[in-house]
Design goal:
Elements lengths: L2 H16 L3 H7 L1 H5 L9 H5 L2 H12 L1 H10 L8 H7 L11 H12 L3 H4 E4 L5 E2 L3 E8 L4 E7 L3 H22 L8 H16 L1 H14 L6 E2 L12 E5 L4 E2 L7 H22 L1 E3 L7 E3 L5 E3 L5 E3 L2 H15 L3 H11 L1 E2 L5 H15 L9 H14 L2 E2 L2 H20 L5 H16 L8 H29 L9 H35 L4 E2 L2 E2 H40 L2
Helix pairs in contact: 1-10, 2-10, 5-6, 5-7, 6-11, 10-11, 13-18, 13-19, 14-15, 15-16, 16-17, 17-18, 21-22
């Protein structure tokens, strides 16, 4: 680790100790790695706060990279418990805007031309300034109003440097602090690494915008800004300027509120079950209300993608929750997740049954989806089942969407409004006239199973009758034990043979007159010959067979390569 990295570790350690995480640093050996012990008093505010709140305050004090880490983690309920997600959701960027000269320098370095050769005008006052980028209004040479998103100078290098430090700290924590075993600090850093580099690449965001624009082309109530490809790159993104009001600030009549809520619900349904591409962070700041109660989506840095199989799994999970079928909910979550070890499925199912009993004693229209989804993900974490990030992102987006719907139109009966969509969805999935329908695929699979099963059962019964049926159980420990016993038996046998031959040679040649210094020459020669032969055989058994196998396998692997 470089000297500046060690200085950064020390700085992080001091701030972490101030927020009450000094014991973890001590156990992880951070001070020992630095060659010194820092004595830091815990702040009074940290002494009164919960662990989750102290973690949020720590990230806030560590600077932009760590604030962005917290913001990304707040969308990943599969990685952290609910109390941490709640705290991290309140993190906001508090950074000073960078000068207009740096904006011009970034445009010149990224687009290859001076700013005034590409834009007629760039507003010197930014619309927004965040830890990753800054946004300015501008006018193109053709007179079109646009917004230019410019990456903060040096942010990529700073994040890469902080990632080195984060990964080192994560390894230390994972090695010595037992409490981190469930949440895998190195796994969290790896996820942050992937997510932050996607967000740093504006080409990726431009691709997302184009995909949303294409998907919403035939939805007149939805506006997606257009990307100006000639004025965009990896660190500069130019988009159409959309004139509207944030949904949280819009003054709407009750009828307008109901119409806007209907548009949000329809857009969410279409994104999930038609497009397979949904906005991962639909908070009120990213949703504008335009004239005629139309909507505009902004900020496409975080999006989720659902395959056809994922869409069908969501349908089955929603039905299982609605029917309070805890067994099906447990099996679906277990199947889509990645268990770290063999999970206690019975305990998982029983906990889900209690959860559904608490949350579904009333009609579905009164269900608190936020608490229900949060506790389902908490149970998955408790039983060490890693839910794919797409579902965790969907959970966050769904909760945010539901919050906007309830604030817009508190009397909206979500179940009543969603029922036509559910019928449409089920009709599409289980329409036998469509080969793409889920029912047709299920019937085809069942038909194949019904045809193959009798033949396979007959084969098994015939093998049993003729004595050809055998069950082979392989276990790594049993294989090792078997090898050890075989080796011990061979060594003992060879040792007895060697002893017998040595004693026999000594007795046989002891009476011969050939002696040297009073010792029988032939007896000594017999002993030496026996020792040499069995030493060679023993050495071959211990080393030659193993290395011979390795050489043969290497030769075979080379022969298989094209």
């Amino acid at each position: 680790m470089l000297l500046q990295d060690l200085n950064r570790v020390r700085q992080i350690g001091v701030i972490a100790a101030r927020h009450g995480f000094g014991e973890w640093l001590e156990r992880a050996g951070v001070w020992r790695q630095l060659g010194r012990r820092e004595k830091v008093e815990v702040s009074p505010e940290a002494q009164r706060a919960s662990t989750a709140r102290r973690f949020r305050m720590l990230l806030n004090d560590l600077g932009p990279t760590f604030v962005k880490l917290g913001q990304i983690l707040s969308t990943r309920a599969d990685l952290l418990p609910a109390e941490y997600i709640e705290e991290l959701s309140t993190l906001q960027d508090h950074v000073e805007p960078f000068p207009l000269e740096d904006v011009y320098a970034q445009i010149r370095g990224s687009l290859g031309s001076e700013a005034d050769a590409l834009f007629k005008q760039i507003d010197p006052q930014p619309l927004a300034a965040a830890s990753i980028a800054q946004v300015h209004r501008a006018v193109t040479l053709e007179g079109e109003e646009v917004v230019v998103k410019v990456q903060r100078p040096g942010i990529s290098e700073r994040i890469d440097s902080d990632l080195v430090v984060l990964r080192s700290l994560a390894r230390l924590l994972e090695a010595v602090v037992e409490e981190t075993g469930i949440y895998s600090p190195t796994g969290i850093v790896d996820e942050f690494d992937r997510a932050i580099h996607e967000e740093l690449d504006f080409v990726h965001e431009a691709s997302n915008i184009r995909a949303f624009l294409e998907n919403n082309r035939n939805r007149p109530y939805m506006k997606i800004p257009r990307v100006y490809d000639a004025l965009s790159s990896r660190t500069v993104l130019t988009m159409e300027f959309v004139r509207g009001v944030k949904i949280s600030q819009a003054e709407l009549s009750p009828e307008d509120r109901r119409e806007v809520a209907g548009h949000i619900l329809d857009a969410s349904f279409r994104q999930l079950f038609e497009d397979g591409l949904f906005h991962g962070d639909p908070h009120p700041g990213n949703l504008l209300v335009l004239e005629g109660n139309r909507l505009a989506l902004l900020d496409f840095g975080v999006v989720g993608r659902l395959s056809r199989a994922m869409q069908e799994t969501l349908v089955m999970l929603a039905l299982a929750v609605a029917l309070k079928d805890s067994d099906s909910v447990a099996r679906i979550l277990y199947r889509v997740g990645v268990p770290d070890a063999r999970a206690n499925l019975v305990g998982f199912r029983n906990d889900i049954e209690g959860l559904l009993g608490r949350h579904l004693p009333m009609t579905l229209g009164q269900v608190d989806a936020r608490s229900l989804m949060r506790e389902l993900l908490d149970l998955a974490v408790k039983y060490r089942i890693r839910i794919p990030k797409e579902y965790a992102l969907l959970s966050r987006a769904s909760v945010s969407t539901e919050g906007m719907l309830r604030s817009l139109y508190p009397d909206l009966n979500i179940l009543e409004v969603a029922m036509p969509y559910a019928k449409e969805l089920l009709a599409d999935r289980y329409d036998p006239s469509q080969l793409q329908g889920g029912l047709m695929r299920t019937l085809l699979r069942f038909q194949s199973l019904a045809q193959d099963l009798p033949t396979q059962l007959s084969q098994i019964l015939l093998d049993l009758e003729s004595g050809k049926f055998s069950v082979t159980v392989r276990a790594e420990q049993f294989d090792k034990l078997n090898d050890n016993l075989r080796s011990a038996a061979i060594v003992m046998f060879m040792g007895l043979c060697a002893c017998g031959l040595i004693v026999g040679a000594f007795i046989s040649f002891a009476q011969t007159p050939w002696q040297y210094h009073g010792l029988p020459v032939l007896g000594l020669m017999g002993i030496a010959l026996s020792a040499a032969i069995f030493g060679a055989v023993f050495t071959w058994y211990l080393f030659g067979r193993r290395f011979g196998k390795v050489s043969v396998s290497r030769w075979l692997s080379k022969k298989r390569r094209p």
